[in-house]
Structures are given as C-alpha cells and as structure tokens.
Amino acid sequence: MPAIPIIKVLVFVLTFAQTPNALGLFQKMRKMGQPSNQVGFGSLFPALHRMEEKGWLLAEWRTSEHNRRAKYYALTKSRRKQLREEQRQWSLVVKALSTALRSS
Fold this sequence. Notes:
It contains 4 helices and 2 strands; from the N terminus they run H-H-H-E-E-H. By secondary structure, the protein is of the alpha+beta class. It has a domain at 6-76: Orthogonal Bundle (Arc Repressor Mutant, subunit A), CATH 1.10.10.10. Strands 1-2 form a two-stranded antiparallel sheet. The longest helix has 27 residues, at 77-103. The two termini are 22 Å apart.
C-alpha cells in the first residue's frame, strides 16, 4: 500500500471527526490502520499548524476530557467544499480503474 501524505490523512480524519484534538486525531489514525511509523505523534503538530496557516482548519483552545488545555480542530467551510470536489474526482478515478481492471 503506498504511503499517504500526512496532510491527506488528517483531512480525511477531520472530515469524519467531531473537532478532535491532536491526541484524538492520532488515536483515530491508528484505529484506521495508518502505520504509526508513517505518522508519528510528533509530526502532527507541524502538519496541523501548516493546515491552519493555509486556512484549511479552524482551531480553538478548550479543556480536554482529562482537564487539560488542548487545541481542537475542524475543517473550514471552504476546505469541506474543496474536499467534496476531490472526493468526486477520486470516485471517477476509482470507477475508471475498476472498469479497466474488469475488462482486462
């Protein structure tokens, strides 16, 4: 299976998550089967920061369930719209590949 860039993994996870913090994101990625050697916990913070700078994420400081300050993230409205278009395009690629594989 090819390596998936961390940004794409985070975008995917954030699409289905309820404004998680970094620890929640890491745990969700591990449950999804993303190998921990590809996505280390220490690499999440720089990636999240870059996504925030690009305007992909909204971030908010809150108190976590462990009574600690944590930054919670959510996709911006414009990023959700862009992601829907990317999902549509990927669906077309998958459909074309499936058709090609069936006919060979």
